[in-house]
């Protein structure tokens, strides 16, 4: 069965779209990522214009995040205080990131810089998470145990405005989530993604939050980020295709619930290693796309 | 002298070839269940002509991203590829290979063939092959030679009503005038062919010359929920975006309620 998408201007298989939504929703629920990095290229492969794919996917992420947030809220695994601080930082960082993009574009090397940053970030984060979690699993030692404070830890300790975050059970300067949220927002704006795959490792390794709180808090942030993106894209660019978003979200809200339940059955290190495999897989896919000659040497503009 | 000129005029008028072009359907409604369209064309043309039927949207400027190698290794965007006067949809059906239908300048005059659409001197000519490949992959561009099939000859007025005359049978040997011919073909348009007016032109080729025989207009219109959605998205984007977000939140929360687990929480 096919449906015509009024804004995308193309026809899609209903069950394929619901299935794609379910798959990406599953990843959202399991890892606390938005999934846009996966969904947008998949939609483009189905003939959806890049700009519509990116904008409509944000709407789908709103639904999956809302679904996940509700469950995490009931389970008391959202650190609202931490999440709000990171969100404020993220909004500021995103604004900065947009200005940086303008500068890079004027220099004429925006695409190259963005792509290199993206591949390095994905590779670095994925590799670190993978080896760190693998070491913890093989050594039968929790990865979060620190034998002695690092330089970073010592630097963080001297920051002012210390706050106790009861859900995460950490005491840390309020500047940390603000600054790190700003960093994520800047990188997200540059790379054109939601930032979940950057935010989750930052929460785990730099803010020292427990994994089950990381997923819920990350979804909380992504919810508001994607509401913002959906409204802005609809208002300024008219690129949100609600029929497409509806098909995707019907699958993703269910997928998110299943992902949450599967994630709960896994240990924190198992979850981290699986996420690292996903991130490394993305990096490999992106690298292969950059190294192999594309099918056509002209493409439509837009997208992430 | 003046009388002789007048005597010639009716003959000149009679010698200007014309044809008949029928397009079915003439109007296509794009609704929620639209999945592309097959457009049947039938053309009646004077005898002895080879024909081409061209379907296209209004030409416009097209800006694409050009891909090339950066640092000798990475394939990525290296600039813009700009094309002028390119239709979104361009398809040609012909009764013979295009190269047999006349010289390239003649075909260029009628925009038949990709080299006629983007000449060698036009902007973006170096990326013509890539653009055509992309558009053909999407089903928006197509050149289908020999796709116009002659289904027979029209019955001439002088022979209509007689048992001996029927479509397909060769005319009597005594008949010196070539009978009009009927050609049929089908345009296949994908779902991504946009709403708007499409011009359909019938061009005849004979003895190294080309003549415009007939034309028609094909109308693609948004209908029903598609039209409503587009109106809301384009003219009321803010409300549309807020409503989309609200619906997404509600569906997400509802699903969370339905899946509410009573098992123990946490890792």
Walk me through this protein's architecture.
- The complex is a heterodimer of chains A (304) and B (267).
- Chain A has 304 residues and is mainly alpha-helical.
- Chain A has one domain.
- Chain A is built from eleven helices and five strands, in the order ββααααααββαααααβ.
- Chain A has helices spanning 14-31, 36-45, 50-74, 80-107, 110-139, 151-157, 175-191, 196-206, 211-237, 242-265, 268-291, and strands spanning 2-5, 10-13, 162-165, 170-173, 298-299.
- A two-stranded antiparallel ribbon of chain A has the order 1-2. Chain A has a two-stranded antiparallel ribbon with strand order 3-4.
- In chain A, a hairpin with a 4-residue loop joins strand 1 (2-5) and strand 2 (10-13).
- The longest helix of chain A has 30 residues, at 110-139.
- The two termini of chain A are 29 Å apart.
- Chain B has a six-stranded mixed β-sheet with strand order 2-12-11-4-7-8.
- The N and C termini of chain B lie far apart (107 Å).
- Chain B has helices at residues 2-15, 104-109, 114-117, 128-138, 224-235, 237-258; strands at 20-24, 27-30, 37-45, 50-56, 60-70, 74-86, 90-94, 141-144, 149-153, 181-189, 196-206, 209-222.
- Chain B is 26% helix and 36% strand.
- Chain B is globular, with a radius of gyration of 27 Å.
- By secondary structure, chain B is of the alpha+beta class.
- Chain B has two domains: 17-221, no CATH class; 229-258, no CATH class.
- Chain B contains six helices and twelve strands.
- The longest helix of chain B has 22 residues, at 237-258.
